[in-house]
Amino acid sequence: MEQKKIILFGGTFDPPHNGHMTLLAGAIAAVQPDLVIVEPAGTPPHKRAGETAAQHRVAMCECFRALFNELIVDDTEIRREGKSYTIDTVRTMNERYPDAQLYFPMGSDMLLWFHNWVAYEELLRRLVIVAHVRAGEDAAPMHAFADTLRAEGGRVIFTDAPVLPLSSTEVRGKIARGEPVDALVPESVAAYIAEHGLYG
Ligand code: ATP
After folding, report:
1. Which stretches does DSSP call E strand in 46-198?
2. Cβ contact 138:165 at 8 Å
3. Which DSSP category does 49 fall into?
4. Helix, strand, or coil here: 27?
5. What kind and span of H or E run contains 121?
6. Which tens digits make up the pLDDT trace of 122-149?
7. Rounded to an integer, what distance in angstroms lies between the CA atom of residue 94 and that of residue 85?
8. pTM (2 d.p.)
């Protein structure tokens, strides 16, 4: 039997936006997974004040279901006490799904920072990185860095979906200034933000 493929998509998702949607859609097209696990980050101690309640971020992550039906919004990191590292979640998922290969989509900002991740060498053994270059970005440094990770035994694949130059920070800023964000986030997220008066 072929090994099961699981996409583990971690992020703060405060809020999820169309850049996240394109990243995940590209990863799904590239990987053809059996399951997608969305993992909203726990609240880091230094970010606690002013942070959007985890329950709202989890609810908004339901937008990703439009991309793939076999999808779990998992709360492992949110329920964990103290600071949460990707390696802890990856170990948990390897225990929970011992026969599956994990694929981890990430934007270029995250990829280039990878050597600073806690236990990155173990992460390289446990994950296939699905890297995404944002539109307008120079892809060459990303490919060079991927080669460095490969030389260390890592596995990196690139998706070729276009990615929007967009961040959650920008979305929160626009809402705070009273500007519309309907073009930047999925419809369900825009409706949720309006209903709960988030980021105002
Ligand atoms: P913030 O602005 O609050 O820092 P963010 O928009 O960068 O947030 P995160 O939730 O921190 O979003 O990101 C989760 C994952 O999505 C990361 O791997 C990040 O690189 C990726 N990502 C974020 N924005 C985009 C985008 N526009 N295109 C592709 N990937 C993205």
Report:
1. 71-73, 100-107, 127-132, 155-158
2. no
3. T
4. helix
5. helix 120-126
6. 999 999 999 987 667 788 889 999 999 9
7. 15
8. 0.93
